[in-house]
Amino acid sequence: MVMSVRATEAKASVDIVTNFYARVQAVADDPAALDFTFGNPHEFPLPGLSAAIKAQIDPKSVEWFAYKTSEREAQDAVAAGLRAELGLPFEPDDIAMTQGAFGAMSLAFALLADVGDEVVIPVPGWFCYEPMLYAANLVPVGVPLAEGNFELDVEAISRAITPRTRIVVVNSPANPTGRVYPKGAWDALAEVLEDASQANGRRIWILSDEPYRRIRFDGIAFATPAASYANTMIDYSYAKVMLAPGQRLGYLALSPLLPPAERAELQEAFMPLGLAIGWGFPDAIMQYAVPALETVSLDLAELTRKRDRMYDALIGAGFEVTKPEGTFYLWGRAPGGDAKAFCDALAARSVYLMPGTLFGQPHHFRISLTATMDMIEAALPHILEVASDLS
Questions:
Q1: Is the Cα dihedral 145, 150, 152, 155 positive or negative?
Q2: What range(s) does the Aminotransferase class I/classII large domain occupy (predicted)?
Q3: What is the per-residue pLDDT for 319?
Q4: Three-state SS at 331
Q5: What is the mean pLDDT of residues 169-191?
Q6: Neighbour count for residue 135 (Cβ, 10 Å)
């Protein structure tokens, strides 16, 4: 075997995703294709995104394109945004700028976990948690969300904790279910983790995966576990709210409730560990653009209109669908209970949905609402006809 064991495990755990991605890419140039799979844009980039990047293209100093770690102006903008948004006293030094949320999570794993440590992840949850953990020589431990409503199941998390547990990953608003968890869930989880940390003699951390934090519907409030549990790190990506996953920009943030000595130790480790994981800092242009990008957002009113159109049509046809409170996904149960059969039948009509098999959920499917309204209107008759045939 040429590859390492961890590389083999990581590849095996993500093969279903990469193979599906290759299938989607193969039809990308088909003008008849209606693609609701990944959260890619289907319209030209947001004007604010383009303007923010263009404003930083022309060098303003001889070091404009020199090596960058975490640029102070970017850290200042992020900390100010977090203070306003989450009501916690974040400081610039609490922020490590990263290559999207991928980079932020990789940095968190490098900072906190040792080889063989266990990391609890939600099921269904983002399909890259598991391969990332295998690649980092860590052990993923999947814990199901509450059946039916996909609430955070704190009791299930408690049962999954062992002396090797080091991190619990939580995701709100959640991909793929669209659920937004209330403060009460974080308070209950904080109590469980505090007790388990004391019993194990080793601190268990929360990694709060928040790339959809600014994409919420119906005025639903957002709560972060960083306000309930001091040993929390937040990872964030600008890609979702900007609809630009190809522009890698994100950050890892420490809860400012951390004891000062622990906070300082981690702050000092941000730069050397960011270097050690493979120069995980964003490109210079993206960092310079952060102050402007803090105010750039997709059209939430239009996204709500698309959510309501798709959700109402599916519910009206008898689908079991979780109404998303956040994200730009819609999560439902496949007619007949076989997501692969449902998605394959639609693919034969050039309509592409994501089968829940990518999330370890063979009975469900996910629809990305980053599609245009015209795409939604064109796809709905096919979705309803195939559902009728399979029911």
A1: negative
A2: 50-380
A3: 97
A4: strand
A5: 98
A6: 18
Integer Cα distance of 170 and 108 in angstroms: 13
- Domain 58-293, CATH 3.40.640.10 — does that match? yes
**Which phi-psi region, left, alpha or beta, contains residue 178 (left: φ > 0; alpha: ψ -120 to 50)?**
left
Amino acid at position 62, single letter:
V
Evaluate whether 169 touches 120 at the Cβ level (below 8 Å): yes
Contacts of 127 (CB under 8 A, 6+ apart): 14, 16, 17, 358, 359
DSSP string for residues in 199-268: HHTS--EEEEE-TTTT-BSTT-----GGGT-SSEEEEEESHHHHT-TTS--EEEEE-TTS-HHHHHHHHH
CA-angle at 278, arms to 272 and 281, nearest 5°:
70
5-47+298-390 falls under which CATH superfamily? Aspartate Aminotransferase, domain 1 (3.90.1150.10)
Domain ranges of the chain: 5-47+298-390, 58-293
Tell whether the model's pLDDT for residue 2 goes beyond 90.
no
pTM here is 0.97
Of 254, 360, 282, 352, the residue nearest 32 (C-alpha): 352
Supply φ then ψ for residue 124, to 5 degrees: -75, 145
C-alpha to C-alpha distances, 70 to 209, 248, 280, 284, 288, nearest whole angstrom: 20, 14, 10, 9, 10
Burial class (CB in 10 A: 0-12, 13-18, 19+), 18: exposed
**Residue 171: closest CA among 112, 237, 115:** 237
Which one-letter DSSP state was computed for residue 92?
G
As a whole number, mean pLDDT of residues 207-225 equals 98
Q: What is the pLDDT of residues 23-66, one digit of tens each?
A: 888 887 788 899 999 999 999 999 999 999 999 999 999 999 99
Strands 205-209 and 165-171: parallel
Q: What are phi and psi of 35, to 5 degrees?
A: -100, 110
Residues with Cβ within 8 Å of 130's Cβ and at least 6 positions away in sequence, in order, are: 13, 14, 121, 140, 142
Average pLDDT over residues 125-138: 97
**77 touches 253 (CB < 8 A):** no
Give the residue among 193, 191, 229 at the shortest CA–CA distance from 208.
229
